[in-house]
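Lecture notes, unit on protein representations.

Consider one protein chain, 277 amino acids long.
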Amino acid sequence: MRKLVYIVLFAFTLVQSACRREATVEAPKVDPLPVMFSFLSPESSDSRVTLTMSKPVFGKVINDGYPPIAIANVTITDQNGKVQTLTFDANKGYYVVDQSVYPILPGYTYTVAAAWDKYKVSGVTTIPMEVADLDSLKSEEAGETSWGQLQYQISFKWKDIIGKTNYYRVVLEEVFFQTFGDTTGAGYGDKVYSDKNKDGVEFSDRMDYYLNDFGSPVTDLTIYLLHSDIHYYEFHRRRINYFGEDPFSEPSPQYNNVSNGLGVVASYRKSTRKVKI
């Protein structure tokens, strides 16, 4: 019986070897595409547009980051045909126009467009009318963690704007003071919400915050509630769910609403509250 098992295993190995062939598959040729990002808001001091080129997975890749495109003609056009050309800021790497020159108005629809060489890209967004604000904001100490950090629970509530499908994002940001005299900001919590099929509900949620004591005491905690269009919501929802090269995560295709290219043109309204801990 043991000899029979060895013979069967040997035969199976021969079959596997016979079925294995070397194959040469030519990788698909994919040209780089223009990438445009612009997030418009009446609550911002200016309007910005960033332009780069994508880097295909296949082919020769130069590891120089994503250098900005600085030679494009970039415009914002409102629903009434009022056009504004943006100026490229070489120090910051994006195109910009101040709101005092070209204000972004609630309820208006804007087209952001860019053209250079053989490329022409554009995206459209409609600014939400209403600013949503938190009805309740509370910070409670939740004890000390096993690694010596103080944990806080930041809870918040707001009432959904009635009458249509709305999209929201809540961001918790900390500002801390460095020992060498500078201040630094960092995002700490980030969640998105939709009222689809639950119009008029009260949203209620919380975020955990951990206070570090490494010579950089926190000077401020800020929470933002953003009422956005669907493009802003979909982009950030997928970005939050993206885990990079994590082999245990599901693929998450990134959102795109830019014609003839990649990226997002989106908009939001923003309210700001300070958090006391």
